[in-house]
Amino acid sequence: MRFESELATAFSSCNTFHTFEKYAELLSPELIKQGFKQAGVATIRKRRLPLETVLWSIIGMALYRQKSVWDIATQMDIMLPDKKPLVAPSALVQARQRLGADAVKEVFKVMAQHGYESNQFETWAGLNLLAVDGVVWRVADTAENHKVFETQSNQHRENIYPQIRMVCHMEITSHQLINSVFSGYRTNEMKLAEGLIETTPDNTLTIFDKGYYSLGLLNRWHQAGEQRHWMIPARKDLNYDVIQSLGKNDKRIRLTTTPQARKKFNDLPEHIEARLVSKKIKGKEYRILTSMVDPIRFPSEEMVELYRYRWEIELGYREMKQSLLNSAYTLRSKRPDMIEQELWGLLLCYNLIRQGMTAAARKLNSTWPNQLSFTSCSMAITQFFATLPLSSPGNIPKHYEALLTQMTYFKLPERREERQYPRWVKAKPQRYPRNTKNANQLN
Fold first, then answer.
1. Which of 107, 312, 335, 422 has the greatest number of C-beta atoms within 10 Å?
2. Same domain, 181 and 251
3. Whole-angstrom Cα distance, residue 116 to residue 68?
4. Boundaries of each Transposase IS4-like domain copy (predicted)?
5. Global pTM?
6. In the chain, how many H helices and how many E strands?
7. Are residue 180 and residue 290 in the same domain, yes or no?
């Protein structure tokens, strides 16, 4: 009987702490207020569902992919106390519309900036390592989404599902996102990348994919702050003049810009200086173009090897799509404004998990946060959310420290450098089963 009475006490106590401040260890309420203020959203605490609690329900949409928003709000216990234990599902829909997408966007940006500035990451030659790349998200097949986001099309047909093109800026040793921009599918990725220049931190090296070769973009990226360097694979048809030979496979070069580029970027000079470094790896030559022209501070032997870390941002996209969204074909929201809100909530949730993994990695020696298993850590954080309503506010810091200690056990084995995954085109699955029988066999 003692166990039954203690169990009844535990379950009855879970209804006494209906306050979102219990999640302060993961996301400070001050950061939420700052984001809401920047978005021009006023917080109204007299409602049963204040905007802060609605924000947590949107974060929960990424953690609990298989559950409805109503079930998420109930499980996370984020509603303020009232005579009625539950709220109507329509109230959650209205609360999401009242919050909007801009508020979640500003909270993400405030949290991302705070997470970057409050942590120390592994550096190379005094520079933090960043990466920029794009990703595509499918959304529900509706006429409104087709109009707002557009679809992929060619000369033969148009894709069924509308798509969103997103470009993210990521710190590659921790996989923490610094910023993100997205628009309709037919928006150029280099155009989206221009929206990341202003928030790029100083003393950083950003690694680009070869598709981002634009002297106007790269020059503005380098000139926008102090020591904002870039690195990108050199094109095969690259035209340049050698200014100085720094070694057998190391040259300081001059690149001539086109009149079209100078018209688009009014701050682009006629010539810009760069550095071209080449290296043979397993019989294949790789060439890297970079703004790091100082041969003493930036040794050429390490530059080409450094470029392989660009793939970390691709792993981050896989973590979002496979682990958080459970490999779902489309996002769950249907309206364009709610789709944008869901996407910002997904990025916010991903950064919360990654910042927790960064804090856990500090407990280990010589371990980067990206060496911990994202799937296992996200499951631990999901379990933490599930058991949090049973905890008193005073014990939450202790449980959070136990969560960080638990995540240190999920260290991944060393990556095998000899593994190769060549790209190949998979056949698109058919919507209907194939008929393998002829007419005689069907009768």
1. 107
2. yes
3. 32
4. 126-352
5. 0.87
6. 15, 10
7. yes
What sign does the CA torsion over 6, 12, 15, 17 have?
Answer: negative
Asked whether residue 427 carries a pLDDT value surpassing 90, the answer given is no
- 324 in a domain, yes or no? no
Contact 233, 289 (CB under 8 A): yes
pLDDT digits (tens, 9 = 90+) for 29-75: 888 888 988 888 866 556 667 788 888 888 888 888 888 877 777 76
Residue tagged 């610094």 (tokens): 178
Which stretches of 236-388 are assigned E, i.e. beta strand? 241-247, 250-256, 271-281, 284-290
Write out pLDDT tens, residues 154-172.
766 777 889 999 999 999 9
pLDDT tens, position by position, 196-238: 999 999 999 999 999 999 999 999 999 999 999 999 999 988 9
Q: Is residue 421 part of a domain?
A: no
Of the residues 266, 287, 316, the one at which a domain ends = 316
Structural domain contains residue 383: yes
Distance CA 372, CA 129 (A): 18
Angstrom distance (rounded) from CA 16 to CA 28: 21
Q: How far apart, in whole angstroms, are the C-alpha atoms of residue 365 and residue 305? A: 24
Q: Looking at the structure, do residues 71 and 154 belong to the same domain, yes or no? A: no
Q: Using one digit for the tens of pLDDT, what is the confidence trace for 129-157? A: 999 999 999 999 999 999 999 988 776 67
Rounded to whole angstroms, how far apart are CA atoms 299 and 124?
10
The tokens describing 40, both together, are: 């021009």
Structure tokens belonging to residue 57: 């329900």
Q: Is the separation of the CB atoms in 191 and 265 below 8 Å?
A: no
Distance in Å from the first CA to the final CA of the chain:
69
Q: Are 136 and 283 in the same domain?
A: yes
Tally of domains within the chain: 2
Same domain membership, residue 393 and residue 268: no
DSSP letter for 427, please.
P
Residue 403 lies in a domain: yes
Helices (H), 194-329: 215-223, 259-264, 300-306, 311-318
Check whether residue 353 and residue 380 sit in a common domain: yes
In a shared domain, residues 312 and 363:
no
pLDDT at 419 over 80: no
**CA torsion 156→162→167→173, rounded to 10°?**
-100
Q: Please say whether the dihedral angle defined by the alpha carbons of residues 138, 142, 145 and 149, taken in this order, is positive or negative.
A: positive
What is the H or E stretch that residue 6 is in?
helix 2-13
Q: Residue 99's domain spans which residues?
A: 13-113+337-407
